Amino acid sequence: PLRPFPISKMRLVPDGIEKPDWALDGIPKIEPDSDLQKRVEIKTPEQIERMRETCRIAREVLDAGARIIKPGITTDEIDRVIHEETIARGGYPSPLNYHFFPKSCCTSVNEVICHGIPDARSLDIYT
User: Which of 56, 74, 85, 87 could form a disulfide with 64 if both were Cys (CB 3.0 to 4.6 A apart)?
Assistant: First the structure.
């Protein structure tokens, strides 16, 4: 049976990293009213290159998180690595405080719960 585990405090993002509009209060302001919600934007070559670079960085961060996964690790430890690796690359962990989500990544210990909040749960109790 899945039960709640303790959740650590929200991790901080250094002042030098650009933050999205939801970073402070948890409420996205631009996204809901953006016309991109209703139309497809044709990207310029420069935008496409920036997207490729962003995807490469995201892959590096996810690979770093994957390298530490083993029985006994907590989902909060996975979140810590994802947070630190994102910050190290100059990025803001996009889930962090988005609609008040308290962590830098989402975890699912049973492949059922979507957007699970990383906590003190040890992965060895599910093996």
Answer: 85
Whole-number Å distance between alpha carbons of 87 and 82: 9
**Whole-angstrom Cα distance, residue 80 to residue 12?**
11
State how far the Cα of 15 lies from the Cα of 92, in Å rounded to an integer. 11
Residues 76-90 have pLDDT tens digits of 999 999 999 999 999
CB-CB neighbours of 68 under 10 Å? 12
> Three-class SS of residue 4?
coil
The letter for the amino acid at 45 is P
At residue 47's C-alpha, the angle toward residues 41 and 52, to 5°, is 115
pTM above 0.90, yes or no: no
